[in-house]
Specification:
Length: about 150
């Protein structure tokens, strides 16, 4: 089924999309398993397998990246962007961001895209961008409260 959506969207005029399913059953990239990817790019549909270790990441356990509640999701998101989450969460986020960087034609391959995503997190740029977004659109005191724990 992974190739159905790109083919349907191609008929609707889409030019650049990606669908993914990890072998551990997630409908997103995972660092705990190989990921099956279908990419529509340059009018071609390509199937590929992305192994986290091959693109420079560590293999994790599914338990390291599972989130059970909305509050845990919010806290984990903030911790990832300020580089204080566990390695598995940071690398899983970077791998998912890498997919977006490829679809957006910012990176040519997963190795380059993962490196850019990790650098963005580790440099503090990701969290700074979140802070600016929240300051412009939300309640910065809530972000500070989450960030301070």
């Amino acid at each position: 089924y992974l190739d159905r959506l790109p083919l349907i969207l191609k008929r609707k005029g889409a030019e650049n999309i990606m669908t993914v399913r990890s072998d551990d059953g997630m409908d997103e990239f995972s660092t705990s398993a190989v990921n099956r990817v279908c990419i529509l790019k340059n009018d071609k549909v390509l199937m590929n397998a992305i192994d986290p270790e091959v693109v420079g990441l560590h293999k994790s356990s599914l338990e390291d990246i599972q989130i059970k509640t909305k509050e845990e999701a919010i806290t984990s998101f903030v911790k990832v962007l300020n580089n204080t989450a566990n390695q598995a969460m940071i690398e899983t986020t970077a791998l998912n961001a890498a997919g977006g960087l490829i679809v957006a034609n910012i990176s040519k391959n997963f190795e380059e895209a993962v490196e850019l995503a990790l650098d963005t997190i580790k440099s503090g740029k990701a969290f700074s961008t979140l802070e600016k977004f929240v300051q412009d659109t939300g309640d910065i005191s809530k972000l500070k409260e989450i960030n301070d724990g």
